[in-house]
Amino acid sequence: MKTNIRWTTSIVALLLVVAIAFLLAACGGDDGAASEIPTEDSADTSVDGDDHEADGHATDVDDHDAAIGHDADADDHDADTDEEEFAYLEAAPKDVLYLVEMTNFAFTPEVLEVGVGEVLEIAIQNVEAVLHDFTIDVIDADVHISYLGGTGQHAHAEPERDADVHFALTEPGSGVVHIKVHEPGEYVIYCSVPGHREAGMEGTLIVR
């Protein structure tokens, strides 16, 4: 009887060993499956790939910005070309000369006269410590402006004017405006600083 019990106990122990071995083998299989899950290294590789695509996109943006910058340079070049085109007026013989003073609130003299095709030189002086400008909105003319003194910068909040002639001085100073007008007519000269024209700062350019 005791022998049978020992034998039975041995068989049960053997079965337990086999069961444990089977469980360990199963766990080992799970570990193998787990090894297929992306590791940190593989995740880093994916991120690097995304960064590469992002870098490529950034490069495209930079190229686009460079193209825009090129267009801006082209616009600046066009402006410089216009400036150079009419620079001849400085050396050209002058048919009519005026000295115009800008005061609060008048141009003196307030009437200027010139013939079509003649070169008009206007030496303009701001004698006040107040912003004034010399503006003609629309005129068919070659125009060249030279600042001799003062800052020549608009200080008020009004947007930059789209005027054919616009000469501004923010402090006592002077400059020269050369004009060669191609069409006869009467052209209004005024100061575009808010309130100045309404106060009487206006004149006339008569082209015969």
Architecture overview:
This protein folds into 2 domains: 43-85; 94-207, Cupredoxins -  blue copper proteins (Immunoglobulin-like, Sandwich), CATH 2.60.40. The protein has helices at residues 2-34, 40-85, 88-91; strands spanning 96-103, 106-108, 111-114, 119-126, 132-136, 141-147, 165-169, 173-181, 185-190, 202-207. The protein has 208 residues and is α+β, with helices and mostly antiparallel strands. The model is unreliable at 29-54, 64-72 and 74-79 (pLDDT under 50). It has 3 helices and 10 strands; from the N terminus they run αααββββββββββ. A hairpin with a 2-residue loop joins β1 and β2.
Please describe the topology of this protein:
Elements: H1 2-34, H2 40-85, H3 88-91, E1 96-103, E2 106-108, E3 111-114, E4 119-126, E5 132-136, E6 141-147, E7 165-169, E8 173-181, E9 185-190, E10 202-207
Parallel strand pairs: 1-4, 3-10
Antiparallel strand pairs: 1-2, 4-8, 5-7, 6-8, 9-10
